[in-house]
Amino acid sequence: MKILSIETSCDDTSIAILQEDQVLSSIVYSQKVHEAYRGVVPELASRDHEAKIIEVLEMALDASNTQINEITNIAVTQGPGLIGSLMVGVNFAKGLALSLDLPIIPVNHIHGHILSPFIGIPKEVIEFPHISFVVSGGHTFLFLLRNFLEYEILGHTIDDAAGEAFDKSAKMLGLGYPGGPIIDKLAQDGNPESFTFSKPNLEGYNFSFSGLKTSILYRVQKEIKQDENFIEKHKNDLAASIQLSIVDMLMKKLNQAIATHKPSQISIAGGVAANSGFRKACESLEATKKIKLFLPKLQYCTDNAAMIGFSAYHQIRDNEIFDQKFQPFAKFSVK
Question: What is the overall mean pLDDT for the chain?
């Protein structure tokens, strides 16, 4: 089994080649056109996918020393994501599958993230039920995994995602894009106890980050009235305090889920899984709660086709049947 997988859900054009569940190559082209806008512009994203997808395909085949006629399956992200970006990947995958007379496997982008920490890990060491925490710029979900393909949503954000809170906080401070990695870097030299911000207290496992963003905005605006150079003087402390606030909100719900479901293993995934503060907080659970933690490699935290191919591999092994009639979808159902 040799899987060619395609990921174009947002602003990364990615293609990977897998030999069963082993990644032979994973190429990611990250679009730079959005930096001037400090956020993803959907129309520009879909155009850039169209311009780069063939080049990325050639790079993935070359890096894996694979000929196109060796491919046995095509996998592609079906959603959720930007519908224009998704359509580029889905239509390209369908055309490729038809031209090569190969089966095509649509993959849920979130499911790809769920499984990303397990890439390169022997299946035998992964235990179920298992708590999975997917935290990114577009998604914040707590899942209870029954097996590699079945999961239950424990909680989700009711407004903004955690990664979006990082990015928009960085925008408030006049920092670059994407803001999450910039805040993480600045936070290394800051005091996380310097500033406090209001945080919601939702029941259950759901999250809300809109109130935190409002609290950060009002505090910054108030301080700037007193000192127009406030941000520049305190940007490291602000970054550290913002990061601590978001991580604390995430860990509160994760600890709550652990206390209820008592798993022996947990995993985190998504772009925010690359955040050093979040990783350290999760790593501390291994010592304090005696829980095995699975972290994705950094290259598998952000959007990538390797996780899409890895998910497709498990779907193929489960004998799931697909045809060309599927369509991309923009939103992930929480019902």
Answer: 94
